[in-house]
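pipeline/complex-builder :: batch 7 item 3
reading input block
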Amino acid sequence: MDDADFPIHLARGMMRLMPPPLVERGGAMLLRKIGRNHPDLFRNLAELDAKSIRVEPSDLPHKFLLSFGGGAPPKLMLARRAGPAGTVLKGPLEQLLALLEGKIDADTLFFTRAIAITGDTSAVVALHNTLDRASINLLDEAMSLLGPFGSAGRAAALRLERRMHGLRERFGPARPAAERRDDGERDRLLAENAALKTRLAKLDVRQRRKQGASA
Amino acid sequence: MASLTLGPLFFHWKPEQRRDFYYRIADEAPVDVVYLGEAVCSRRETFYMDDLPLITERLRAAGKQVVLSTLALITSETEMQDIRDRCAGEVMLEANDVTCISMLEGQPHVTGPFINVFNEATLDFLVGKGAVRVNMPMELSAEAIAILAAHNSVETEAFVFGRQPLSISMRCYHARAYGLHKDGCQFVCELDPDGLAADQLDGNKLLVVNGTQTMSHGYAVLLDELAGMQQAGVTHFRLSPQRTDMVKVAEIYRGVLDGAREPGEATLALSQLVGPVPFVNGFVRGREGMAWVEGAE
Amino acid sequence: MREPTYLELVCPAGTPAALRAAVDAGADTVYCGFRDCTNARNYPGLNFDLKEMREGIDYAHRFGRRVLVAVNTFPRAGDVVFWQRAVDNAADCGADAVIMADIGVLDYATRRHPNMRRHLSVQAAASNPLSIDFYREQFGISRVVLPRVLSVDEVAAVIARMKVEAEVFAFGSLGTMVEGRCYLSSYITGRSPSSDGVCGPAEYVSYREEGDQMVSCLGKVMMNRYDKHENAAYPTPCKCRLVTNGQASYLFEEPVGLNAVSILPQLKAAGVTALKIEGRQRSRAYVGQVVGAFRQVLDALARGEPQPEAANDLYRLAEGGKETLSAFKKGWR
């Protein structure tokens, strides 16, 4: 694991154990910190149309409501009520955080169905494009909350992450074998399929012409 | 006085159907201008090119102006050579691609709906090159059409009846829909003389394909808007040939243009004539093109 | 300015961060647009204000790279001045060229900024030597972005007969309709690529789950229905599933992305000057990855070495997770 990466296993583990009010307070603190470190980002977010997105990490018990735009600073709350939201963003925490940091392309995640958006998609597009203008490093932001203990905390967090990662590798669910792209075989079958389709279509057209002529 | 025109036939009709259609237009339809020629696919032309001189003669004898439309997309060497020949010919041309503009410079011509004339600056430039009549692109709102029609004294033409051309491609979707390729297309587009329906997955109607062209499923019907456009200075109103009684269609439009018929009553008569096809007028009303806004503006 | 190796690599930037990512990853040239409807990627949160444009151009110039500004939509009647200001602003910011499509805008730029390089946008759909000649003679364009509908042989034939540089699309999403003349998006939503700079705008896009399937809609129109693990496409009209003769299919184009990395030598032999990467709407991460991979491939080709591993990563980033040579290949039609 790269040292610059976010300790995702640790974060997920901690957030699963944390009681909801603590998660909410932690999230709000982190957001305020990001606002202080990236005033441009908050200004850009405020300029957007007012929207809210329900964020549902598929591997956490918590759901969040993120509101932004309309001149106000962004707000992050726990979504306690299951009421219908304008937009719902679903996906594994790791992908959602990487998206927030701009490490992964949103369209790529979407094409491969790693994340799902339901409802009004313009909220997600506007948020993603605006976030992409700034360079946020979540680990740095989180650790800067610890003030002078930040660097010690960071080292400890990454150490713990490496250990959790190792455990997961040993005992976690087996990963599917990497998909092998057998291009030659695939292309041959596709070509054969296309040729058959064309023959069928020609017969079909001839048939239609005959019917047309006799009608 | 407002002129009624018949746009180029976008579909691939059998040569004898095409010939009979134009003969009847010559004899019976109250249209002032007829656009002939192929705007969609050059491969089709060989079927009916030889008939064009006779059709032209007959239309002219009936007192109609004949204009030859050019392809909306020109790529091959043969297509370019054909354009050169026609630019040098005696029949007035409708340029559907800027390819023709430099060859037609200084020579009176019409610019077709496939050339993007979205604003006054472009209009001025094309008029400077010899355009005497400018077609409004499909997408323009009544407001934009009014600005362009009032901008200078050039004739302006609006598309007021028929399936609206929405896009053009190098790829033939008609062939593709029948599992064929463009080069071996067997001219399957002939099987769908009013376009091949391309519906939504839930069964709702949306588009039709016509060779390399994609069109609206709904017929554009701009009867309610005729008076407004006339007042704004639009001089020509185009009917696009569909598989319906185009002579009757022309009579309905002529009646409304002349103030002899009410648009509401005429719309009803038209819908009885063409059958179950929905009508659209969204573009001119500043809405999504597939919308139908009832009544006058 | 730095001399391009092998072929000039022209890269997209939807944000200042993407511009820096493109420059850092080895782009020779970056193209971008202002934050309004004067450019063809007018999506929320995207593009540059004047200050960002000036800073972005300074950043690129510091590393010897060029910046092209796209003012490539068609002004609405009555609004022409807005587009003219965009051209003036691009000139003021020190852009190396402006990319345009509208005849009126080209005419203005030619008269007002005769010394600024003018490129012809793909939105102008100049697809044969005669129309390219028209734009060169009338507006002195130095480069044309060729439509994404020509095969390699056709690209070569066009280039052989024209007197300006050719830029072709090498990677990214592709429209199968002739660009600048497609009204499908405005037929469904009322907002058009031509004048609003948007195709299938996000505020009209919606998704809903139906059992195991996901349904995408544009406005009130159903675009697609995906099975659980099926790759998705952009919810634009030319990538939708339609029913013809009772059969549902991707009538216009499958959800695939263009990737011409395997035919770069053919494109060079055809006389191409520059390769364009599509994707101003994509993130800086995408820009960095694609540009980085192309940089390695071009450098390797220039040295006469085999294609590096990096080229293999590109397919993951393509639309629908699949890639194609599209119109470059014979038989596409």
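note: Chain B has a mean pLDDT of 95.
queue -> next item
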